[in-house]
């Protein structure tokens, strides 16, 4: 199981969408993920390929009858290990930087 050499915005965006769908009835497929993260197909599918290589995500082809008249979709699901690692990365993303305060002190503009 590998880990990311570089943590990128697209990686974190895709992980966030996959975690939002974790445990749900419907597994997201590429187009759904692309629309949710607002990134291009090559970017999203590149991230999904890497996540599968690392064992963080499993992708499965949907069952489709011939009369549906559309291509099969590849649906993605985060693995238990992938979930733990993704949650850790996303916690770091949402943590304020050191020395940064979430509260701003009131600024006096002299108008009072």
Low-pLDDT runs: 100-105
Beta-strand percent range = 5-15%
The overall pLDDT average reads: 85
Major sheet: arrangement of strands:
1-2
Distance between the termini: 60 Å
Largest sheet: 2 strands, antiparallel
According to DSSP, the number of beta strands is 2
Summed up, the helix count is: 4
Helicity range: 40-55%
- Oligomeric form: single chain
Q: Rg to the nearest angstrom? A: 19 Å
Following the backbone from N to C, one meets helices and strands in this order, namely HHHEEH
What shape does the CA trace take?
globular
Query: Structural class, judged by helices and strands?
Result: mainly alpha
What would you note in describing this structure?
- Helix content is 45%, strand content 9%.
- Helix 1 packs across helix 4.
- Strands 1-2 form a two-stranded antiparallel ribbon.
- It has helices spanning 9-21, 30-37, 41-54, 80-94, and strands spanning 57-61, 74-78.
- The model is unreliable at 100-105 (pLDDT under 50).
- The longest helix has 15 residues, at 80-94.
- The protein has 4 helices and 2 strands, in the order αααββα.
- With 112 residues, the protein is mainly α.
Keywords:
112 residues, mainly alpha, 2 strands, 45% helix, globular
